[in-house]
Design brief:
heterodimer; A: 156 residues; alpha+beta; 4-stranded mixed sheet; 7 helices; 4 strands; B: 523 residues; alpha/beta; 5-stranded mixed sheet; 15% strand
Chain lengths: 156, 523
């Protein structure tokens, strides 16, 4: 579980300023924003555009191109489940169906209680110990429903 | 002074995924309770991944391995006197004598899993820095000559002769040049780059620095996928050490030549493993593929001459320089020279990193190293070369791992990843997934890939549900031809490889009998 700061334009300006001098600073800024706020809100787009002397369209285009960047806050826990072939070969598809049924969510959705967001990921490089996942940034191999419940502190 | 026993507990992401942190913490606690003087070193993995976490203890007779160790095993390990290499059901003996490892030819991975990844002294003691030392005695053409003699071909998948790129960038005139490492290892079934960056990051740093000397580039970027948080930490930690020790900076090893490296994180886009979209992404833009020419070697990052190589290509360089290009070329077969870090994964009993000279057969890897499937069921298929690689059936398993031999069987070696499937696999479903993956990851620049992938999913859905399957399979074949011939880059161009290999090699999985109740026209 990760605690994020609430959106704060001043803090956002500070983050932008810290990275603006880098060559090709867009991605480093967006990563830093997401690390601070848990997502990159639309309010950040004109600020980044202004600082880098780029158009809002370019920043928006970049923000929406990459799977990593969220424009809305995620749940308190983010579970990235590997959907790639090596994990498929050891039953990931069936496991994912079970998990989605249990949490009553589909890909990219957050549980009704705001606790858990499920995101697909294509390969974590844990291809010998699948099904693999990153749970709140922590790698987990040989995932099953029980392990996921334990990691999330859920009893059901 | 009490003897301090060194204990190695890998911090490799695969070891962490199987509980290595808990094991290290437990060892610490139990040692403290029993008054044993220990020092825990968090090394990389040796690549025997089914044995992770594999704990090694330094004893009078060398290192003794135990694995796979769970936190709950630690008390009993101490009770069995494992600090002295005592007998235990998890005892594996000396790691270098485990046949799986002993049979390998470790050049690039010679140190991974052995040394402390952040100790430059360890690195040097095990042969590190000898390549850079040698490079500093040569002029730029002299370095490129060694790379040429080695026969090294780009390990990212395309297999392009490395020296040609190096020489092109070297000869290009510009006020600024770049060395860019493609560490966007997105192929399923591959983890060699990750293992090396986590377990022996100085090898990559040394290789890139040599490339800087050879090309006249002063700045290096490592474009790392965000799915590898441990590698990000490891690289940054190693870069700090390298700068402090004068390997990087204003004067590389006091040579007067500047070179420094920065790590940049990708953001979950598979297409950014394609070199031109990687450069767009590094420039802070959408990862949209560029048309070539101009080639990146002449007009790459920010329009400057740029050498783009994969992690495994750069990591082969220190060995090539220190032992000579000729010695490297003595490994391998045909035009595939040197060693290939093979990654054996998926539904396999003994998966991991197998570095061997090119030329071993797929069957030897899967059967002798892999020991069959993890599930215990028969092996039915192996996908080689990532999500854009072919699905091979048993009858093609005798194909040697060699770029040309794989191409001859309509497959590709790619980054050397092998994913094994047992007999429960449904190849029609896998073919559909290949299109689905392409649809999710296409950069959208060219029509065959952007639209073709989506149409492929729809058409495969019709085949799978028995709607005029023969006719629709014909459409899939047509679509594959258009994607192969008309796509700008390998994403759209190679998506047909897994699809067509599934159809051609496993026709029995493609239901060719129409279900009368759902007779809708093929569109």
């Amino acid at each position: 579980m990760t605690a994020y700061e609430p959106w704060n334009a001043e803090r956002a300006s500070q983050i932008i300023a810290e990275h603006a001098a880098l060559e090709g600073a867009t991605l480093p800024i967006m990563h830093a924003m997401q690390e601070a706020f848990g997502h990159v809100p639309d309010a950040a787009v004109p600020m980044i555009a202004d600082a880098l002397n780029l158009s809002r369209a370019e920043i928006h285009g970049c923000l929406t191109f990459y799977h990593d960047f969220r424009r809305q806050p995620a749940g308190r826990h983010v579970v990235k489940l590997c959907r790639a072939e090596a994990c498929q070969s050891v039953g990931a598809d069936a496991l994912h169906a079970d998990i989605k049924r249990e949490l009553n969510v589909d890909w990219h959705e957050t549980t009704a209680d705001g606790e858990v967001t499920i995101e697909p990921v294509f390969c974590l490089g844990l291809c010998t110990c699948g099904p693999a996942a990153l749970i709140d940034g922590k790698p987990v191999g040989a995932l099953d429903v029980g392990k996921l419940r334990a990691a999330l502190g859920r009893s059901h | 002074m009490a003897d301090v026993t060194k204990i190695y507990v890998p911090r490799d992401m695969a070891a962490l995924a199987m509980g290595a942190d808990d094991v290290a913490a437990k060892i610490e606690t139990v040692a403290e309770k029993s008054g044993a003087a220990i020092e825990i070193v968090r090394n990389g993995s040796r690549g025997l991944l089914w044995l992770e976490p594999m704990v090694e203890v330094e004893t009078g007779e060398g290192r003794i391995a135990y694995g796979p160790v769970a936190a709950s095993d630690v008390e009993s390990l101490f009770a069995s006197d494992f600090l002295k290499g005592g007998a235990h059901k998890l005892r594996l003996g000396k790691p270098e004598e485990i046949p799986w490892l002993a049979k390998q030819q470790r050049l690039t991975f010679a140190r991974c899993g052995i040394i402390d990844p952040f100790s430059l002294d360890d690195y040097r003691a095990y042969g590190g820095m000898a390549g850079l030392d040698k490079a500093l005695t040569l002029d730029a053409p002299g370095i490129v000559d060694e790379v040429k003699a080695s026969g090294l071909r780009g390990r990212g998948g395309a297999g392009f002769p490395a020296w040609i790129k190096w020489d092109t960038v070297r000869k290009a005139e510009a006020d600024r040049k770049y060395v860019v490492c493609n560490a966007d290892e997105g192929d399923s079934g591959t983890f060699a780059d990750r293992m090396l960056m986590e377990g022996d990051p100085f090898t990559l740093i040394e290789g890139m620095t040599i490339a800087g000397l050879a090309t006249g580039a002063t700045k290096g970027y490592i474009y790392l996928r965000s799915e590898y948080p441990q590698a990000f930490e490891a690289l940054n930690r190693a870069l700090v050490v390298a700068r402090r020790r004068g390997v990087l900076g204003a004067s590389v090893m006091n040579s007067g030549k500047p070179f420094d490296i920065e790590v940049r994180l990708g953001a979950g886009a598979y297409i950014c493993g394609e070199e031109t979209s990687l450069l767009e992404s590094l420039e802070g833009k959408r990862g949209v593929v560029r048309a070539k020419p101009p080639i990146p070697a002449l007009k790459g990052l920010f329009g400057k001459p740029t050498l783009v190589n994969n992690v495994m290509s750069f990591a082969a360089i220190p060995w090539i320089l220190s032992h000579g290009g000729k010695a490297y070329a003595d490994y391998g077969m045909g035009r595939s020279l040197g060693t290939l870090p093979i990654q054996l994964a998926g539904n396999v009993k003994r998966g991991g990193l197998i570095e061997l000279a090119f030329g071993i057969s797929l069957r030897e890897v899967i059967e002798e190293f892999g020991g069959g499937t993890w599930s215990g069921r028969p092996v039915r298929a192996a996908q080689v070369g990532g999500p854009l690689g072919a699905y091979f059936p048993d009858k093609l398993f005798d194909t040697p791992l060699d770029y040309e031999a794989f191409a001859a069987k309509k497959g590709l070696l790619g980054h050397g990843g092998i994913v094994v499937f047992d007999d429960t696999v449904d190849l029609a479903k896998q073919a559909r997934f290949a299109f689905e993956f392409c649809a999710a990851e296409s950069c959208g620049k060219c029509t065959p890939c952007r639209i073709g992938a989506t149409r492929g999913v729809e058409t495969m859905d019709r085949v799978i549900s028995g709607v005029q399957p023969e006719k629709n399979l014909g459409l899939v074949r047509d679509l594959c031809e258009i994607m192969t011939d008309g796509s700008l880059c390998a994403m759209g161009g190679l998506t047909p490889v897994p699809v067509m290999s599934a159809i051609d090699n496993f026709p029995e999985d493609f239901n060719t009998r129409a279900r009368p109740s759902v007779a809708i026209a093929a569109e």
